[in-house]
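Data availability (excerpt). The following record was deposited with the supplementary files.
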Amino acid sequence: MLTSLKAMVATAKEDIATNGGAPVPLDVRTVAVMLVTCVLLTLFYYWGRPGFFQSQFDAPLSALLNLENSEYRGLLRYGYWAIASLVIRVAIPLAMIVWWFRESPRDYGFRLWEPGHGLIYALMYVVMLPVLIGASFFTSFQNKYPFYELAGDSVVQFVLFQSAYGIQFLSLEAFFRGFLIFALFKRFGYYSVVIMTIPYCMIHFAKPMPETLGAIVAGLLLGYLAIKSKSFLPGALLHFGVGFTMDLACIAQRAL
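Predicted structure:
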């Protein structure tokens, strides 16, 4: 058994050294990026979402802040969502870029976009607008959006929720169309867009099926444009604009 184990370890070492005979050798940094991505996606899924806050922290924090009977109590979980998004999807990747890779965040999309690219994203929003309005007629979308059930009760509720929602979109784009895609682009070129789109599609699994399928197209398109514009920021603005519009349209449909 010991001999077999040693042989297995030796074979594994050879496979790693030769990358199974593939023309491109294994790259420690690229492997690290992929593994860290898996860990961060897991952390966010289990600990970063509003449901986790509600089950673990809502009651004690509401009591501490004297918000137990407040109409704004439900916003706490979305504030937590925004903070968790910033920590897991922005702060940790930035720490890797600066202190491990010793590179500039600008090389990972943390910069303003190239001149002229803003118009492309604006046109994309215009194209999406009738699609969003059309989708808002479906019950599946009306039942899903806005996530915060009291967002349509008042302007204050809506604005506070959208503030957290916007931070979440910024963090999401910073992670997928910033850290992940630019880190992988250094090794895979435009294949990085396809690689990034796989986990991006998967985070939509709890949403209506048309939206999940649409995330494949959005991931490919926004990924390519992020590389060309050298920034994830216009994608974040577009993504937030789409989410904001969907929320408004669904609230309006329920009011009719």
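Summary of structural features: The radius of gyration is 21 Å.
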